[in-house]
Structures are given as structure tokens and as C-alpha cells.
């Protein structure tokens, strides 16, 4: 029967875990994963629900094991590429996990089940860093994205800042950026023309920039992602 087959499969494949306590140093139960995941570059950590406490605590413990014992060095959240990159850089610079916690959705960042995860991330920065990134191409509003765009233009003394309609662009950008996602797809033709024309001019200036820093590359990619999502 289906039930018997399921139990047979489970008995053959399940790795018993004695504790998922995120503060426990006991990881012996995870040792079989070294053989199971040998040669794998990516491990997908699913969840039954965003607020399933048991899964979150188990994953917190598992992430530490995968990093410390198996050499995985990147933790990717389903979150905004730009926000997570900016938050990670700020957290490392200030040596505080708050930036990372604020940048992730609250059910991950501020859950008691993940409380030890972000301090652990920062404890690795002077050894083999466990870097935190996002893989969602949408640009969310946790970080002052438009302010960073303006800072870039100001540092370049860009003529874009002198456009007679630049203030209108800023207002439209901020509203589009901060409103619920549905607003992004409800722009009229005039608004789209203004928004995309200025963004294209900014991207053109960036194309001419020889800046090779990661922060510049991420800012440029995030602006392109933002345009594509709105479009």
C-alpha cells in the first residue's frame, strides 16, 4: 500500500536527528550529510511555512554545519539582491547583526528560532566568511535605494540632476518604489516614459563608468532589475 511504501522509503532514507537546538554544539547527527551532499554546490532549504518554528531552528543549526563542516560559504535568502548585499556590507562594517535582521523578512530575521544565525554569520568574517545574499530580482523598500542612486549621481556631478523634470522623476520613483507591488504595473504612458527615460540615462552613464567595485555593480544591476520589473 501507499502507506507501507512510504514508511519503507522513510526508514531507508531519513537521517534521525536527536536535537535541533540551535545553541547545541552536537552535530554528530548531521555527519551522514557529508556523504549525501558530497560534490554538491547548492543545497535548497525548504520550509513548510514561513512561520514554522521547528523548521527555522533546524535550518539555523544546519546552516552552521554546512558552513563549518562542509565548506559552504554563501547563504542566499529569497530577498532583494540589492538590499541583502547592502545589509551584509553594513553588518560587517558595524559588526552588528541588526542590519541583516532588518533586511530579511521578519519571520526569518527576527524569529527566536533564528536568533543565533546572524551573530554566527558575523563571527565568521575574519575566518572563512559565510556571506549573506539575496536572489530576488525585485527591489524592495528596506533600503534607501533612490538615495544611493542620487549619491552616485552627485559624486559624478551628473547633468541628470539638473533635468527640469528630475524632481518629478524622484517623486514618481519613490512612489513606485514604496507602494505595493501592484502599483508598479499601473503606471500611465506619461509616467512610464519619464521614469524609463531617466533610468536609461542613468544606466548609460553607469555603462561609461569604469568603476569595478562590487557595490557599484550591485547598484547598477539593481536599477536595471527595478526598471525591468516595473516594465
Keywords for this entry:
single chain, 231 residues, mainly alpha, two-stranded parallel ribbon, 11 helices, 2 strands
What does this entry look like structurally?
- This protein is 55% helix and 6% strand.
- By secondary structure, the protein is mostly helical.
- Strands 1-2 form a two-stranded parallel ribbon.
- The radius of gyration is 22 Å and the shape is elongated.
- The mean pLDDT is 89.
- The class by helix and strand makeup works out as mainly alpha
Radius of gyration based on Cα positions: 22 Å
Strand content: 5-15%
Distance between the termini: 51 Å
Brief characterization of the structure:
With 231 residues, the protein is mainly α. It contains eleven helices and two strands; from the N terminus they run H-H-H-E-H-H-H-H-E-H-H-H-H.
Map the helices and strands.
Layout: H1 2-13, H2 32-36, H3 53-70, E1 74-80, H4 81-94, H5 98-103, H6 106-109, H7 117-123, E2 131-136, H8 145-155, H9 166-178, H10 189-207, H11 214-230
Parallel strand pairs: 1-2
Amino acid at each position: 500500500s501507499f502507506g507501507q511504501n512510504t514508511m519503507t522509503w522513510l526508514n531507508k532514507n531519513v537521517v534521525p536527528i536527536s536535537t535541533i537546538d540551535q545553541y547545541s554544539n552536537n552535530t554528530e547527527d548531521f555527519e551522514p550529510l557529508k556523504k549525501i551532499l558530497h560534490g554538491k554546490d547548492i543545497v535548497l532549504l525548504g520550509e513548510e511555512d514561513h512561520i514554522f518554528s521547528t523548521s527555522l531552528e533546524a535550518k539555523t543549526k544546519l546552516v552552521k554545519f554546512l558552513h563549518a563542516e562542509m565548506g559552504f560559504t554563501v547563504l542566499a535568502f529569497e530577498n532583494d539582491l540589492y538590499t541583502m548585499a547592502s545589509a551584509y556590507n553594513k553588518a560587517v562594517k558595524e559588526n552588528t547583526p541588526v542590519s541583516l535582521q532588518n533586511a530579511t523578512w521578519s519571520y526569518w530575521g527576527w524569529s527566536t528560532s533564528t536568533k543565533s544565525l546572524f551573530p554566527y554569520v558575523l563571527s565568521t568574517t575574519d575566518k572563512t566568511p559565510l556571506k549573506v545574499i539575496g536572489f530576488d530580482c525585485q527591489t524592495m523598500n528596506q533600503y534607501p535605494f533612490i538615495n544611493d542612486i542620487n549619491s552616485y549621481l552627485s559624486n559624478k556631478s551628473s547633468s541628470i540632476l539638473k533635468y527640469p523634470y528630475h524632481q518629478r522623476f524622484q517623486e514618481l520613483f519613490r512612489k513606485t518604489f514604496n507602494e505595493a507591488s501592484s502599483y508598479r504595473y499601473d503606471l500611465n504612458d506619461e509616467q512610464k516614459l519619464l521614469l524609463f527615460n531617466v533610468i536609461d540615462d542613468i544606466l548609460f552613464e553607469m555603462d561609461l563608468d569604469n568603476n569595478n567595485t562590487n557595490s557599484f555593480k550591485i547598484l547598477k544591476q539593481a536599477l536595471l532589475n527595478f526598471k525591468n520589473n516595473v516594465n
